[in-house]
Amino acid sequence: MKQIILAFTILTLNTCIYSAIPDGDIKTGLDHIYNLKFDLAETHFNSLSSKYPGDLRPSFYLAQIYFYKALPTRDEGYYLRFLELSDKAIELYEERLDKNEKDYDAMYYLGQAHSYRSLLMLNLNKNLIGAAFSGKTGYGMLMDLVTEKPDYYDAYMGLGLYKIAIGFVPGKYQWLLSIIGFDGNLKEGRNMLRTAYEKGKFTSVEARVYLAFFSIREREEQNFESVNIMRDVVAEYPESPVFKLFLASLLQQMNNMDESITLTNSAIDQNTNSLQNEMKKGANSLLGSAYFRKNDFEKAAFYFEEHLKYVHPEDRYNVSLFLLGLSYEMMGDRQRSLAAYQKVRDDFVKERDGEGEKFFLRLAKQRASGGFTKFDSLLVIAMNVRECGRLDDAEGMYNELINIGKSVAFTQDDLAKVYFELGNIYFLKGSYQQAEDMYRKCIDSKAANETWLKPHAMFELGKIYSLQGRVSAANDMFAAMKEEDDFDFEVFLDMRLINFQNK
């Protein structure tokens, strides 16, 4: 009996020392973070840290505030402050584990701390060796935790992100990752995010946002899971501009420009707390894109100009400069379009900034050196009509372009563009035979510059065959696609294929 009383006393003392903060108080601080009220969140967690010095959680979330400050701003001061707070937190967690290697809370927060260190270092192009070490440490710690305690549901969010990120790595590199202890699987990763979302105590909101992002499907599938998840998040956090902007971006991908504009304007109205410049940057980019798709080029130019006032030198903004130049082109202002094209940069880091910056640099150079024909103008308008979901109108416009081509000398690049877009329209309408005919014509065209259209058309054909149950034909087409090399958006297309094959 004495032993039972002693054990209960020790358990009670441990609970008072290490888990004294009510969960609701932690969630209050997280709500401040999600609403971008970082000053309130920092004050709140500092107060909890002082009041409950033995609790592990405030140290983690205080570092997280600076993670969320440093990631979008790339501010060196925020980055260094994050490292300082993260170092202190990691030291605390390691001390706890030295005393008790079965301290599951310490395992969890140590794994999470290393994971976020790795993520920030990678995104800011900092210490890549340190990022790899922290990533491996974080992954290993979280795996050990769920192995020993499968019902520690918050750990599944971090593990899910690892599984998804590694799952997107092309198969030829997977063996290397497995040697150093990483294992990727998209389906498993999404299931882990769903577990954290449905059962997690403190990761439910973040897990939902990540799940929304990684549940984006191909457009023809008409899968609204991502949008529905984010609608629920926005309903729960109506004061959060960042959640509204994320939902607005998803709506644009689903061809819903009008609701995207409404949500973005609402986010701008609520942009009164932390990260104001970053919210302006994102909001104006979304508005510029939405109005461009609506063929309202005057408004598009205005918002792209506003967006570019807030970009960081290391941001990826060539697309905004190109669309700004194209907007002025459509308005008949060649001088201002040339000024925008000439600002497109070529000093980006290819390994980090990737395919988009390179693609729009090439297009801007082409536009700056060549003229802007009536065909070019009609092609922009037709593409935007299709992007807004007006498929019948877009189909008529592209067929008109083909008729124009009978009397005007089209380039093979022009023909490939038209055939590819018509294929997309017929695919979205469910007219698979007509879509196949257009994609075949695109593949057979001899495009000199837009060589990326051929493998992308192959991917679309493979999807059609998959939907028709023609598994062998689909696999053959995907294999042929993989034989193509050195084209625009090659890595992105590989990721789309992996995502499509791992629903």
Concise overview:
The protein is mainly alpha-helical and 503 residues long. It is 76% helix and 0% strand. It starts with a helix and ends with a helix.
Q: What does this entry look like structurally?
A:
- There is one protein chain.
- The protein has 503 residues and is mainly α.
- Among the domains are: 2-21 and 39-152, Serine Threonine Protein Phosphatase 5, Tetratricopeptide repeat, CATH 1.25.40; 374-501, Tetratricopeptide repeat domain (Serine Threonine Protein Phosphatase 5, Tetratricopeptide repeat, Alpha Horseshoe).
- Helices cover 76% and strands 0% of the residues.
- The protein contains 26 helices and no strands.
- It has helices at 2-18, 23-34, 38-51, 57-73, 76-99, 104-123, 128-148, 155-167, 171-179, 186-199, 204-213, 225-236, 241-253, 257-269, 276-293, 297-308, 318-330, 334-343, 350-369, 374-387, 391-405, 412-429, 432-444, 453-467, 471-483, 490-501.
- It is globular and about 80 Å long.
- The N and C termini lie far apart (55 Å).
- Residues 1-18 have low confidence and may be disordered.
Name the descriptors.
Serine Threonine Protein Phosphatase 5, Tetratricopeptide repeat; mainly alpha; disordered N terminus
Mean pLDDT: 90
CATH topology of the domain at 2-21 and 39-152: Serine Threonine Protein Phosphatase 5, Tetratricopeptide repeat
Q: Helical stretch count?
A: 26
Please give the number of β-strands. Answer: 0
From the coordinates shown, what is the CATH architecture of the domain at 2-21 and 39-152?
Answer: Alpha Horseshoe
CATH class (first level) name of the domain at 2-21 and 39-152: Mainly Alpha
Q: State the separation between the terminal residues, measured CA to CA.
A: 55 Å
Helix content: over 70%
